Structure formats: C-alpha cells, structure tokens
Q: What sequence folds into this?
C-alpha cells in the first residue's frame, strides 16, 4: 500500500475538514469554555459526529458501522486537532470502540448502538498517577459472587464526568509489572460506590478523578478474558496512541499554518517579518519536521490496519515524533506571534494548551522513546 | 495468486539462485561499491553479479527494455528492491550514470541519445562523473563560468570544475558549461564528453577524512564534437537551456543524498548495548547514551517512513515539486547526527586513524565524510530557503 491517502480517504478528509471548520471550530471551543460547560464539549455536536458516520468508523458494517480502519479514524482526528474541536471522539469512538472490538459480542451489542447514535460517551480509566504508566496498574478487582468488586482510584479520565461507561483496567491477579493478571471491565458510571470529581484541564477539556469504593460488576462486564486483559489493553492503547498522534499532528499543522499566515502579514521596521531569514529557516525546519511526523502517523495507522506485528513499535515512534514536533510548532508559534501570542484573543495559545494535554494522553514523548529502546532490546 | 505475488516469488527464487555469496556480505567500506567503467577494479563476485543483473536489465529495473532496463512497473521495482533488502543483497552497480544522467536523458534526451548512451550505463561499461560546481559557484551554481565556445563543428571548453566526484576514475562527464555570457540561467548548456579528450586534467582533493572522493577538474582548450552520430548531439536538451536539465537533476540528487538519512542499522542502541554492557534490567548501562540512542532510533524510523512516503508520492506525482529539498535537508541532518552519536559511543577507540582494529579509522573517516552531506548538492541553508519560499510561500525581502 502506498503511503498516502487513497481517493475515498481524501473524500472523508474533505468532509471531516468542512465539518470541523464549520461546526467544531475554535469559536465553538471558546463558546463552550466561556460558558463553563460541565462536559467541556457539546452533546449536540457529538450527535452530529454520529450523523456524519464518524462514530462508527471502527465499528464493523455488520454491527452498523462503517467498517473502516485507523487511517480513516486518523483523518477525522487530524481535523479535530487542526480545529481544536472539543469532542469525546478519541476516547469513545477510537480507543473505547477498539477495546470493545477486542471483547465479546454481547458487550458490543450493548454499547455500540449508543455510540453509533451519538448518545453514549465512553471514557478510559487507566492512569493512576501523574504520568501514564499502564505497566504499574495496581487497582484491584477481586472476585465477589458472580462478578467482581473494584477498589481503587483512577485519574486523568478524560470526559469521565460526561461518560455513561468507563473502560477500567484493574488487576485480577498477579502484581504490578506482570502482563498476566490484568483485566478490562466496562463499568456503568451509575454503579454504586463509583464517584467522580471532574476538573477543567488547561485545554478546557474536562477530566475526572474517579474513585471505586467496592463497586460491584457482573462477570459479563469483563472485556475479553479474565487475567488476559493485557492484550485488550494493548489493542486499546495502540488505537488511542495512534489516534492521539494524528490529533497531535493536526494541532501542530494548524499551529504552523496560522503562524506562517501571521508572519506574512505582520510588519516591523517597515518590513514584513516573514521576509526575515531567521524566521524563514525556523518555519521551514518546522515544516520538515511536521512532514516527517505525518509519515510516522500514516505508517503506524497502516501497520495497525494490516495487523502487522511491528505496529506497536511504529505507534510509539508516531506518538513520540508527533509529540516533539507539535511541541516545537506551538512554541515557535507563540514566539513568532510575539506579544499577541500571549493574549487569549489570538488562537495560537489555544493550540499550545491542547498540545500540552495531548502530550500526556497515553504516554508522552519520553515514555514512548523509552518503549522504543525496550522494544529494540536495550 | 496475483501477478505481483508470483513476480515476488519468481524474483526471490532467481535472486537466491544467482546472487554470488560475496554479494550478500555486509558493506564494509566504499571499496565494496561496484562502479563498473572502462578501467574497473572489481572485488570477488562484483563483476559476475553486475553482469547477471545487467542481462536481466535489473541494474536499472525501471528503465525501458530498449535502453537496457528491466521494463519493470513501479510496483515490481519496489518488490525487487524490497526483496534485495530483505535478502541483504548488494546493489549490483552504482553510478552517476544511473542516478543522474539516465533520468536526464530519459526526460530530455532524443531517441538517438537514449539508444546511444543508456545501454552502456545499464551494463556498467561507462563510468560517468558530474561537472557542476566551480570554485566561485557553489550555492549560486548558475553563476558558473566554464565556457563552451561555438567553433562550428565543435565546442571549445575552457575553465575549471570542483567537487567532481571520482573525476579521476570516470570515463565521461556530464558538464554544465556557459554557452552565452550575456545572461545567467539561460546561457548554460548540459554537455557530454569523454574525459580522455586532450586538455582534460583531474586532481584529487584530500579531505578532512583523509579520503579523496572529489577532484578539481581542469579544461584547457578541450574540443568537444557537437555530434557523436546521427541525432546524437553532445548537448542534452536545447543549447542554453541546460539549467532546466540541471534543476531537474538537482531534484534527483537531493532525493538521493537524503537517502543516507534512512540507511544503516534501524537501531543504534541494540548494536551498542552488547559492547557497552547492560544493567540488571537488560538496559544499555549508560543512561544518557541510551536516551540519545533511543531518540535517534525514533528519528531514523521516522525518516524511513518519510522516505517511503516521499517515494510513493513522488512516483504518483502527488508531492510538492520542492519536496526533494525538504528531504535533502532532513536526511542529511539526521545522518550527521547519527554519526556524531556513533563517534560518541565508540569513545577513544574510534579515534585510531590507521589501526587494523578500526579498519583504518573507518568510523572516524565516515563521521567526517558526513559533514559534507549538508553542503554538497545544495546546502541545508539553501534547502531551507527553497522550502520557505516555494512551499510555505514566505515572501522575499
């Protein structure tokens, strides 16, 4: 497969771009931020996502979805990033759906209709500390009667306050660091003993601290097999990380585009500052880095879609490379905007904030760089 | 089975049956490159491999068969190269004829020129060199002064070229000359002539690596015939329009040099961990070096994906015409960083300039050689200028 979008994917890109630019643009983000919306996104917009078919991209056709792949999910995510669209797309329709795809049919039949209609929101309860360390999960799930009892705390559960269902990773046996013994559960947020404390993040998305105090779930809440959740988690993380990389790429590209436009117009010393070689070379370097980052994202998605055994390596490469590159893009963006780059009125700062939040989502550049070293056996 | 799948199967079978074992050994140094030519220096296996591949047209698999190529489609060429890479088979023939002159002739040459010049390139019979830069014309290449005076049936060439790769070993040269002094870009012609012609002299330049891959090339009253036969002009394209050919080729050259960014081992760290020792977790036990190695692994794998994407979009005419400049910039900068890291990892041992243990200072010489990557074929600064103006559309002062 050549490493560029085919005609169908380009059509999807065009419609996603039109949609985000029209409905989910930066003005929309500001509106929901300024009215201090408790969800951090618009449920009406989420319904529109569903009407466009976006929420079913990774759902099979037999189950009512589009039966497409990670490249298509990434096409939508890049436009989300470029326009800073607030939505639960990445957590619900990409990572959440992919976790459910790894589980049994009963769970898919239960949750997919709500996702396809845009009525449901899924959130991911993975992280237990300030940094993403899925290998160190300690939250306990102990057998109780026919099911399990969950005890512990999760944090950085993005859109957790608005979710009706959480995908929860917990230990049913073994100890932190062991691959075996992890189990993933689909837990309704209305369950007794589950409490959520939502906080606004730097990018104005909402994330929850979730406490599980003896939350009882049925055995049929298990996604995949008991003690074998490592593989389900990995599949979900692969999808989420590749997706986050695509969104990050969109943020970086959007930031570069508005910055290049800005320096084409701004005059100092009676000269357009974009004529200065000092800025031109930095902008060209940034362009080069973003092009490379784009190739890593597409390659990782393509490998995931092909079921390649080396996809995980490329996913980490993509998350690390897009993370570094977009961090550069937003920093250069603010600097090249000068004083107005510091104001709330200009959009470039919003790009910086979204990048910061995405960087921590499912592992930052350092985390994935370390993983690459481990996967290479050193 | 699809046609491509059966092509892959047949190709693998043929490669395995025909490739001499020496041609599956890893590359050690530049002497392992087979250049062909009229005065070749073949190492064991090189000539056999070159001839076998040339007989199939696979020294230039995507050139048309009538010019000595294999007539393979894009997809078939990709499969052949993939399988050669997977089986660790060396390229049968390297030459500026294949990389540079061939594409120029295929694009700008007459049918007679193609039939005259291309098959000997494909068979490795004639080794070409490239006469572009001059002492006063580096980044500003179009200011070149080497003159070609029209003398009726021939041109009279006078002037000097520099950085002519392997001019001392080449049989023929493709050379940019000034055929009109009254104008800059539209007074340049792209000429082909024999390096044994009277008045051509070459002098190797000793570089900081101690090697001499480049030459100064002098032309004193060199007579170049206007024609080598019916329809076989010594000028490619029109007289005075050589800059069009040169620009077209610079794209090829830049893409080619950028390829260094994706060469070499996929992971430096796994290579050096054994040498350095590992901690109880199996990690390379210098944590700072490990972090740098991992960073480099990411950038190398990322650039490989970029090279694949660039190749795919280039062939499908989907990439921006200035994209080779971005590739050249990024690829050479990565390659330089990579060699810095290899030197750092090697410590004091790789400082040995002439010892047997270092194979004559190979690591250090290679490190120094890479410093030219971001200068030759257009400096990094020129690449960034082109990208900022042509792709980002930033205004000129």
A:
């Amino acid at each position: 497969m050549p490493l560029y979008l085919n005609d169908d994917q380009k059509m999807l890109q065009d419609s996603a771009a039109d949609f985000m630019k029209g409905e989910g643009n930066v003005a929309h983000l500001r509106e929901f931020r300024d009215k201090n919306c408790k969800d951090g996104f618009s449920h009406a917009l989420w319904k529109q996502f569903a009407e466009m078919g976006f929420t079913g991209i990774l759902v099979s056709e037999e189950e009512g979805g589009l039966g497409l792949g990670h490249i298509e999910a990434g096409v939508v995510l890049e436009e989300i990033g470029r326009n800073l669209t607030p939505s639960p797309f990445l957590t619900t329709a990409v990572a959440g759906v992919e976790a459910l795809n790894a589980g049994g049919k009963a769970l898919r039949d239960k949750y997919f209709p709500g996702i396809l209609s845009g009525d449901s929101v899924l959130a991911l309860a993975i992280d237990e500390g300030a940094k993403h360390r899925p290998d160190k999960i300690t939250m306990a799930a102990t057998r109780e009667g026919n099911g399990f009892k969950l005890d512990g705390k999760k944090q950085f559960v993005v859109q957790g306050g608005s979710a009706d269902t959480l995908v929860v990773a917990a230990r049913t046996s073994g100890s932190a660091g062991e691959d075996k013994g992890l189990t993933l559960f689909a837990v309704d947020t209305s369950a007794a003993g589950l409490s959520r404390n939502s906080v606004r993040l730097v990018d104005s998305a909402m994330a929850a601290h979730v406490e599980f105090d003896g939350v009882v779930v049925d055995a049929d809440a298990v996604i995949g097999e008991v003690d074998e959740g490592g593989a389900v988690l990995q599949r979900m993380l692969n999808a989420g990380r590749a997706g986050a990389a695509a969104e990050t790429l969109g943020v970086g590209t959007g930031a570069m585009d508005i910055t290049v436009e800005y320096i084409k117009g701004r005059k100092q010393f009676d000269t357009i500052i974009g004529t200065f070689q000092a800025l031109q070379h930095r902008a060209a370097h940034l362009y080069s880095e973003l092009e490379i980052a784009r190739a890593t994202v597409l390659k990782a998605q393509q490998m995931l879609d092909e079921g390649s055994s080396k996809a995980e390596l490329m996913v980490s490469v993509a998350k690390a490379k897009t993370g570094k590159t977009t961090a550069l893009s937003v920093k250069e963006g603010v600097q090249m905007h000068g004083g107005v780059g510091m104001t709330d009125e200009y959009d470039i700062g919003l790009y910086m904030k979204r990048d910061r939040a995405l960087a921590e989502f499912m592992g930052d550049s350092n985390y994935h760089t370390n993983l690459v070293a481990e996967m290479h056996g050193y | 089975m699809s046609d491509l799948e059966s092509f892959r199967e047949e190709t693998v079978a043929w490669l395995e049956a025909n490739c001499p074992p020496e041609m599956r050994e890893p590359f050690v140094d530049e002497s392992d490159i087979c250049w062909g030519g009229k005065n070749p220096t073949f190492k064991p296996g090189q000539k056999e491999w070159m001839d076998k591949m040339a007989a199939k047209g696979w020294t230039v698999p995507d050139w048309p068969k009538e010019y000595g190529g294999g007539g393979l489609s894009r997809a078939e060429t990709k499969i052949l190269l993939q399988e050669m890479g997977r089986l660790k088979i060396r390229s049968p023939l390297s030459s500026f004829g294949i990389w540079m002159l061939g594409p120029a002739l295929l694009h700008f040459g007459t049918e007679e020129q193609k039939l005259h010049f291309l098959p000997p390139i494909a068979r490795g019979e004639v080794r070409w060199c490239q006469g572009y830069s001059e002492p006063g014309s580096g980044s500003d290449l179009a200011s070149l002064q080497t003159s070609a005076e029209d003398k009726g049936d021939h041109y009279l060439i006078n002037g000097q070229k520099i950085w002519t790769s392997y001019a001392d070993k080449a049989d023929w040269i493709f050379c940019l000359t000034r055929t009109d002094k009254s104008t800059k870009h539209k007074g340049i012609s792209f000429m082909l002539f024999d390096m044994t012609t009277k008045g051509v002299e070459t002098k190797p330049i000793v570089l900081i690596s101690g090697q001499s891959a480049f030459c100064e090339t002098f032309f004193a009253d060199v007579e170049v015939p206007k024609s080598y036969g019916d329809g076989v002009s010594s000028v490619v394209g029109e007289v005075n329009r050589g800059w069009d050919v040169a620009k077209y080729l610079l794209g090829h050259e830049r893409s080619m040099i950028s390829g260094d960014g994706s060469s070499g081992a996929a992971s430096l760290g796994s290579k050096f961990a054994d040498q350095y020792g590992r901690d109880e977790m199996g990690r390379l036990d210098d944590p700072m070096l490990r972090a740098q190695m991992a960073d480099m692994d990411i950038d190398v794998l990322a650039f490989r994906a970029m090279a694949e994407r660039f190749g795919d979009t280039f062939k499908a005419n989907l990439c921006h015409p200035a994209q080779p400049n971005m590739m050249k910039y990024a690829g050479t900068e990565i390659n330089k960083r990579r060699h810095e890291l290899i030197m750092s990892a090697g410590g004091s041992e790789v400082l040995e300039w002439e010892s047997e243990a270092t194979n004559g200072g190979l690591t250090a010489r290679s490190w120094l050689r890479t410093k030219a990557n971001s200068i030759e074929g257009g400096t990094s600064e020129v690449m960034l200028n082109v990208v900022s103006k042509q792709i980002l559309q930033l205004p000129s002062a």
Q: What stands out?
A: Residues 247-391 of chain B form a domain with the Butyryl-CoA Dehydrogenase, subunit A; domain 3 fold (CATH 1.20.140.10). Chain B touches chain A through 48 residues (CB under 8 Å). Chain B is about 40% helix and 15% strand.
